[in-house]
Specification:
By secondary structure, the protein is α/β, with parallel strands linked by helices. It is built from 12 helices and 17 strands. It folds into 4 domains: about 120 residues, Rossmann fold, CATH 3.40.50; about 40 residues; about 110 residues, 3-Layer(aba) Sandwich (Cobalt-precorrin-4 Transmethylase, domain 1), CATH 3.40.1010.10; about 120 residues, Tetrapyrrole methylase, C-terminal domain (Methyltransferase, Cobalt-precorrin-4 Transmethylase, Domain 2, 2-Layer Sandwich). It binds S-adenosylmethionine (SAM). One of its GO terms (biological process) is methylation.
Length: about 425
């Protein structure tokens, strides 16, 4: 082994599929590194008398072979690459010496200067693998924290599209149905945000992370498909038409929806229409308001010993409306959590129906208006008082209404 700080490391991408990689040590360092080695398809051999529960689970699942004993000379036989990560420097030195002897590139986590290979800070975004190594020369010594910070910045930039990386491949002109989350712009997925940054046309709802629209470059056409509760600024037909026309014109279209596209979002109707027109559709799930709005307000939709189920229900029509598909008497008999969307207008009738079918009058209720947004507010009530409380407090849509004992669980943030 040679210590050499005069020359920078030579970066390379190892194609480890089916090739033997030996990991010596089953602690937290191995735990951190194993997933990437598994993802690369390496034939993994772990040598360690003990391992963390997560590493054990990988062995149990057959993802790697575990020799449950201390390292001994000869373990690196047939290896292409080795990771030496025990907490015993002597063991590490012996394993690294064997690697050197066998000309196996070896990462040594206790003393990088004595290792023949270094692990870069890696990340993946937008179909790109990012690997950052700081130089490691005398003038610019290794700085793993800086490498990790740079990696994070590059991954974040690629993910949200702020780091321009033009793709040299034909554009598909398809439509991405993107769930934008409940409203806070930070609650969109990284994939959703990246597709938004790459879009030519964005067709956006009133709900969802509208702040993100401000970040779009001026050439991006934003179509406002704002649907107001109980009425429509633009009929679904017109939305579908806009999606189809723009996609057929070869544009990359994002249909940005609030929450998740398939939770009361008519996402499947749009997907079916697009597919019928031969337009490729990508679905990007989003964080539904049904779970996230209660969560941010400190209400878990399930809680051990309190609720073993939660049911998400649309309250856009009253329980006695012939169009209602909801079995309200059955819901009243449940002990679990009820999460109501689009239910502000009918909350009085809904509460009456649940009470009439046996749900206790003192069941806690939380009305969560404009959750995750700067204007968020919470109004607490019981099933008996919710009609009056909602009226007196002027609760308006959009609101998620949570009914059940979970409302009383936990501290209010
Ligand atoms: C047409 S549904 C769409 C639901 C959406 N697809 C989802 O997964 O969250 C609209 C309803 O979602 C709820 N909602 C969506 N965003 C909300 C928010 N930020 N705060 C409270 N309620 C919200 C309200 O009940 C609203 O009336």
């Amino acid at each position: 082994m040679s210590e050499n700080t005069a020359h920078p490391a030579y970066p390379v991408g190892l194609r480890l599929h089916g090739r033997r990689v030996v990991v010596v040590g089953g602690g937290t360092v191995a735990q951190r590194r194993l997933p990437a080695l598994l993802a690369a398809g390496a034939d993994l051999l772990l040598i360690a008398p003990d391992a963390t529960p997560s590493v054990e689970a990988m062995a149990r699942a057959g993802e790697l072979t575990w020799r449950r004993r201390p390292y001994r000379h000869g373990d690196l036989d047939g290896a292409w690459y080795a990771l030496v990560a025990t907490d015993d420097p002597e063991v590490n030195a012996s394993a690294a010496a064997e690697a050197e002897e066998r000309r196996v590139w070896c990462v040594r986590t206790d003393d990088a200067d004595l290792a023949s290979a270094w692990t870069p800070a890696t990340g993946r975004a937008a179909g790109v693998t990012v690997a950052v190594l700081t130089s490691g020369t005398g003038e610019a010594p290794r700085d793993p924290r800086r490498a990790a910070a740079l990696r994070d910045a590059i991954v974040a930039g690629l993910s949200d599209g702020t780091l321009a990386a033009p793709q040299h491949r034909a554009r598909t002109g398809g439509v991405a149905l993107v769930g934008g989350g409940p409203g806070d712009p930070d609650l969109i997925t990284v994939r959703g945000r990246r597709l938004l940054a790459e879009a030519d046309v964005v067709v956006a709802d009133r709900l969802g992370p509208r702040d993100l629209l401000d970040e779009l470059p001026p050439h991006v056409e934003v179509v406002d498909a704002a649907k107001i509760p109980y009425g429509r600024a633009m009929a679904q037909e017109a939305i579908n038409r806009a999606l189809v026309d723009h996609a057929k014109a070869g544009k990359s279209v994002v249909r940005l929806k609030g929450g998740d596209p398939f939770v009361f979002g008519r996402g499947m109707e749009e997907a079916e229409q697009l597919s019928a027109e031969g337009i490729p559709v990508t679905v990007v799930p989003g964080i539904s308001s049904a779970i996230s709005v209660p969560g941010v307000a400190g209400i878990p939709v399930t809680h051990r010993g309190v609720a073993h189920e939660f049911t998400v229900v649309s309250g856009h029509v009253a329980p006695d409306d012939p169009r209602s598909l909801v079995d309200w008497p059955a819901l009243a008999r449940q002990r679990g959590t009820l999460v109501l969307l689009m239910a502000v207008e009918h909350i009085g009738a809904i509460a009456d129906t649940l009470l009439a079918h046996g749900r206790p009058a003192d069941t806690p209720v939380a009305l969560l208006q404009e959750g995750t947004m700067a204007t968020a507010r919470r109004v607490d009530a019981t099933l008996e008082t919710v009609r009056e409380r909602a009226r007196a407090e002027g609760v308006r849509p959009p609101a998620v209404i949570v009914i059940g004992d979970v409302v009383a669980v936990g501290a209010r943030p």
